[in-house]
Write a structure and sequence with these properties.
Radius of gyration: 20 Å
Helix content: over 70%
Number of helices: 19
Distance between the termini: 22 Å
Shape: globular
Structural class: mainly alpha
CATH topology: Growth Hormone, Chain: A
CATH superfamily: MFS general substrate transporter like domains
Number of strands: 0
Number of domains: 1
CATH class: Mainly Alpha
Order of helices and strands: HHHHHHHHHHHHHHHHHHH
Strand content: under 5%
Length: 399
C-alpha cells in the first residue's frame, strides 16, 4: 500500500473537505471545555457542575450523530454537512450576544452537539471514495479532524484572556465560514452513495451484536479522548494550580498526541489488523490512567497523559479500520451509532471525574475507574474476536 494510492484510488479533494469540516466542527464542539475555567469562574461552579458543563455538548453530539448518520445515508453527506454547519452558527451567535445564565449555557452546549455530530458525516464521505485496503488510512486522515480540539485548547484560553469567553464564541464563526465555503466548492458525494431506504431499515444494525462491540470499544477510545480533552484544563487548574493558559497549553500537547496519531492507528491497523492493535492500545491506556491516578509530579502526569491520549487516538483509527469491513452498506448509520456511543463515553468521563472529585476529594478514583474500563474493553474485544474469526472475513482478526 502506497500513500499515492489515496490520489489514484479515490477523491483527494473530498478527503481534504472531510478533514476540514471535521476539524473546524470539533474545534467548536469542545469550546466549552476549552473555556471551562472562565465559565466556571463566571458562574462559581462546583466540581460536579464543571464536569456537567463540559460534558453536555458531548452527550448532545451523541444524539445528533444518529440523526446525521441517517441523513448521510438518505440525502448524502454533502447536504447533511451543509445543514450541520449552518445550524452550528446558532450557538456561536447565542454565546456571543447572550449566554448570561446557566440554563443558557446548557442550551448552547446542546446545540454545539450538532458540530460534534460531524463525525457521522465526514467519515462516511471519505470512506465511500476508497477501497477496503485504504479504509484505515482514509478514515484515519478524515478522522484526524479531531485535531480541531487543538485549536480550541491552544487559542481558546488565550483569546478569552483578551476578549472574554463570549468573544471567543464569536471569533469561532470566522474559520467556520471559511471552511463552509471551501467545503461547498471542493466536496463531492461518492458514486457509491446508497439509495434511500425506509427509515426502519437503518436501525436494523442495532440488532447485530457486532454493532454493540464496536460501540463499547469506541466509547472507551473516543470517549476517553474527547472526555479528557474537555476536562483536563479543569483538572490541571484544580490539581496543579496552573493558570488557564498554562493548562490549555498542556491540554493541547496531550490532545496533539491523540489527534495526530489517529491516522497512524488506521495505517497500522491496515497492516496488522485492527484487533491486534486495539488489544495493545487498551493495555497501554489502562497503564497510563493508573499512573495518572497516583497524581504524581506534573511532568510525569503530562508524560502519562500524552502516551495515554496517543493510545486512545490510535484506537479511534483502529476501530474505524474495522467498522467499514463489517458494515460497508450501512456505514453512515453505523458510524452514527458507534460515534454516538463514543460521545456517551465522553459525556460520562468528565462527569465521573468531577463528581468523584466532589465526593471523595480526589481525582484518583475517577482515573482508576477509567483504567478498569479500558481493561474491560480488552476482555470484550477478545470475546468479539472469537465471533469475527468464525463469521467475518476481516483483515487481521486472528490473534
Amino acid at each position: 500500500m502506497k500513500l499515492s494510492e489515496l490520489k489514484t484510488s479515490g477523491h483527494p479533494k473530498t478527503l481534504l473537505s472531510s478533514f476540514l469540516y471535521f476539524d473546524i466542527s470539533f474545534m467548536i464542539w469542545v469550546l466549552l471545555g476549552a473555556l471551562g475555567v472562565f465559565i466556571s469562574q463566571d458562574f462559581d461552579l462546583s466540581p460536579a457542575q464543571k464536569g456537567l458543563i463540559v460534558a453536555i455538548p458531548v452527550l448532545a453530539g451523541s444524539f445528533f450523530r444518529i440523526i446525521m448518520g441517517v441523513l448521510t445515508d438518505r440525502i448524502g453527506p454533502k447536504k447533511t454537512a451543509t445543514i450541520g454547519m449552518l445550524i452550528t452558527t446558532i450557538p456561536l451567535i447565542w454565546g456571543l450576544i447572550a449566554g448570561n445564565s446557566l440554563p443558557e449555557i446548557y442550551a448552547i452546549g446542546v446545540l454545539l452537539g450538532v458540530a460534534g455530530a460531524s463525525f457521522s458525516v465526514a467519515l462516511p464521505m471519505a470512506s465511500r471514495w476508497y477501497p477496503p485496503h485504504l479504509q484505515g488510512l482514509a478514515m484515519g486522515i478524515a478522522g484526524a479532524g479531531n485535531s480541531g480540539t487543538l485549536l480550541a485548547t491552544l487559542f481558546g484560553p488565550r483569546l478569552a484572556e483578551h476578549f472574554g469567553w463570549h468573544g471567543v464564541m464569536g471569533i469561532a464563526l470566522i474559520p467556520l465560514v471559511i471552511v463552509f465555503t471551501l467545503f461547498l466548492i471542493l466536496a463531492k458525494d461518492a458514486p457509491s452513495q446508497p439509495k434511500p431506504q425506509p427509515l426502519a431499515n437503518y436501525f436494523k444494525v442495532i440488532k447485530y451484536r457486532d454493532t454493540w462491540y464496536f460501540c463499547f470499544m469506541y466509547s472507551v477510545t473516543f470517549g476517553g479522548f474527547v472526555g479528557l480533552t474537555s476536562f483536563l484544563s479543569i483538572f490541571f487548574v484544580d490539581q496543579y494550580n496552573l493558570s488557564s493558559i498554562q493548562a490549555g497549553d498542556f491540554v493541547t500537547l496531550c490532545v496533539a498526541a491523540g489527534s495526530f496519531f489517529r491516522p497512524v492507528g488506521g495505517y497500522i491497523a491496515d497492516r496488522i489488523g485492527g484487533v491486534r492493535l486495539l488489544l495493545v492500545l487498551f493495555i497501554i491506556s489502562s497503564i497510563c490512567m493508573v499512573g495518572v491516578s497516583q497524581l504524581p509530579a506534573m511532568a510525569l502526569t503530562i508524560a502519562l497523559l500524552f502516551i495515554g491520549m496517543m493510545a486512545l487516538g490510535m484506537g479511534n483509527g483502529a476501530v474505524f479500520q474495522l467498522v467499514p469491513q463489517r458494515f460497508q452498506k450501512e456505514i453512515g448509520m453505523v458510524t452514527g451509532i458507534v460515534g454516538a456511543a463514543g460521545g456517551i463515553g465522553g459525556f460520562f468521563l468528565p462527569n465521573i471525574l468531577g463528581t468523584l472529585k466532589q465526593v471523595t476529594g480526589t481525582y484518583a478514583t475517577g482515573f482508576l475507574i477509567f483504567a478498569t474500563i479500558a481493561i474491560l474493553a480488552f476482555v470484550i474485544l477478545l470475546i468479539a474476536n472469537v465471533s469475527w474469526r468464525k463469521n467475518w472475513n476481516m483483515k487481521g482478526e486472528t490473534v
